[in-house]
Amino acid sequence: QVQLVESGGGLVQAGGSLRLSCAASGDIHSIDVMGWYRQAPGDKRELVASLNSGGDTNYVDSVKGRFTISRDNAKNTVDLQMSSLKPEDTAVYYCNAIVVAVQGDFWGQGTQVTVSS
To answer: Residue 102's pLDDT is what?
Structure first.
C-alpha cells in the first residue's frame, strides 16, 4: 500500500507560480510511476505530468515549458513546480502512484489550485 498526501495549492494571480508537493509513505520502493493529474469542474481528470522510476518525465502539451515534475528521494516527495500560471490551470490537482507488480493505482486527496485573471 502507498499513501499520498498533497500540499501547496492555493490562489495565485495569472503569471504567478506555485509549487505542489506530494508526500509518499508506505511501500514507496515499489512505486513505478508517480504523476500529477488535475480535474476542473465538468471536465475529465487529465494527466499533467509523470515521472517514472527511471527518471523519465512526460507532460501534457498545455504545460510544457511551464511545469516541472521532480523527485526528492530524501524527503520521499514528488513536486510539481508550476510557473506562468493561467486561469485555465485552475483545477483540483491530484497525486498518483502506480505499482505495476500489484496493479496498484493510488491517489491523494487532491489540492485546489485557483488562478485568477
So the answer is: 87
Q: Which residue has the cell 509549487?
A: 19
Average pLDDT over residues 45-66: 96
Close Cβ partners of 32 (under 8 Å, ≥ 6 residues apart): 52, 53, 98, 99, 100, 101
Q: How far is CA 116 from CA 47, 53, 75, 77, 89, in A?
A: 22, 35, 31, 27, 10
Distance CA 101, CA 49 (A): 22
81 CB-near residues (< 8 Å, 6+ apart) = 17, 19, 67, 68, 69, 70
Q: Each residue of 97-113: pLDDT tens digit? A: 999 988 999 999 999 99
